[in-house]
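quick one: adenosine-5'-diphosphate bound model?
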Amino acid sequence: MQATIGRIRVLDEDTTAQIAAGEIIERPVSVVKELVENSLDAGASWIVVELRDGGRAEIAVHDDGHGIVHQDLALALARHGTSKITCAADLFSVRTLGFRGEGLASIAAAAASVEMVSRPAHEDFGTRIVAKGSHVAAAERVAAPAGTKVTVRELFAATPVRRDFLSSEKTELARVSVFLGRIALGWPAVAFSLHSDGREIWSLPAAKDPVDRLEMVFGKGSRGTLVPAHTPARGVVGVEGFTSRIGADRPNRAGQVLFVNGRLVRSPALSAAWSAAYAARIMTGRYPYGVLNVKLEPNDVDVNVHPTKIEVRFLAAATVFDAVRNSIGDALRADTANEESLTAFSMVPGAAQARGSDETILPAMSLLGEFEGLKGSSTAGSPLTRALGQIDQTFIVISDAAGLLILDQHAAHERIAFEALQAQQISPAGPAMLFPRIVELTPDQAATLETCSAELAAMGIAVEHFGDSAYRINALPSGYGERRFDLAGILEDIAGSPHDDHAGDLRRHLLASVACHSVVRAHEALSMQEQVTLYERLRACREPQTCPHGRPTMLRLDAAQLKGAFKRT
Ligand code: ADP
Ligand code: MG
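yep, here:
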């Protein structure tokens, strides 16, 4: 994408009628997005974002881009005033992030005032203009550095209802920080910095590639879990970026940063292609993460489908899907070739035994101290005990000398993990994790974490604040399945169910919740050996009949019941 140095014109009605309309300014981060996109379109080599009161009082974005000439500055604020397209046909070959001429006009309509100061490098003087609502004061000449600075004051001053919908200062700042960190991944050659109430929050110097920026978005240590994907445009689509190694996935798509020609987008189609590259090597409900920039000819993608331009439509969707899947597939193959030892993971029946370490095949099993026995062919318990298989990958059917047993695999595993944790069978101080895991917590989850971090630590779970909404899990009880450990889920549980204030109650509650969020779930395939082991371990429990929440774990059909059912009595 290259800088556009053109004059600003107001688009004609034919063109504006074809523009996807809708609200674009919702909160401070939407203002920052529009302004930063303008700076990037202007070819800036650095962009400084400054907030006051989380952006509610003031948002300023400053750049060293090509600037706006004196005569055009007022037009920049006009609805549909743009230098980026001139007619409706241009809508199908957009090379810039903006193109509708609505960004600045929408901001001016939402804020108490917008001040713009701009100077093209070739001019001696800059121009300053202030818009208050629909009133735009006359442009005046001022001394100014080359580039543009836009200052937006008091967002939603005239619409208190909308202002009341804004979150706390900290949360709005966090949203801006997350957005900037993400967009910075797609624009490594541009330096970015974020300031809040006069303090620098972070700054990223210009870099050759996004490697140095990965840690800011994905957390410290993420470098080791991300592998590069570089597929130069073969045919029409090129793919660049980093994707998580097999085994280093996440419980949601929040870690998938997607760009299409430098535009930060949300795209179920691209996400699906991304996941497809992992095929059987990732569990349902787990997602790869990283950053991908998909590059294609501007006329092969329609960017005019959503008011905030966050969604795009591909003309040849299948080609793009294949290109992304293949590129990621290549990256993963290159990685496993380099490092065979890295956790190959599969829950596909049959494949599970073939490869991978204990941790990756059925991680929570190792919590039970049982996995070593499981790996060998020696099945614990009576030789007459056999697993017959799973029903709906949720219920395990076991036969023994006395009849049939049906286990709820999740409830059963919960009971086992609960008693194991309770009995302190696990060593409380687990070893530091090879790749400490970073998780994002909502402010509510973070608050809950504060109330129970001592209890968690006592269980061998070490969590440390890692800046903004990121938390780092440094240690889990030894043998504990890292993959399944779902901190956010545990915290939601604790917050969502009432418990008395005393520590004993909280502890019991935590044990049940940690057990619940660390074991096999419904709809997971288990090998026959895993099924038998689960049953044997359940039998060894003190209270095998129910899970820690009181639901039944198994159902028995013995010969007498079968006789009754078949009217043989
Ligand atoms: P759009 O980005 O869709 O064109 P905007 O309302 O965001 O619409 O901006 C209107 C015009 O103002 C842009 O087309 C561009 O010419 C000019 N402009 C806005 N911000 C900047 C900037 N930071 N540097 C240079 N020109 C800018
Ligand atoms: Mg714009």
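The longest strand covers residues 111-119.
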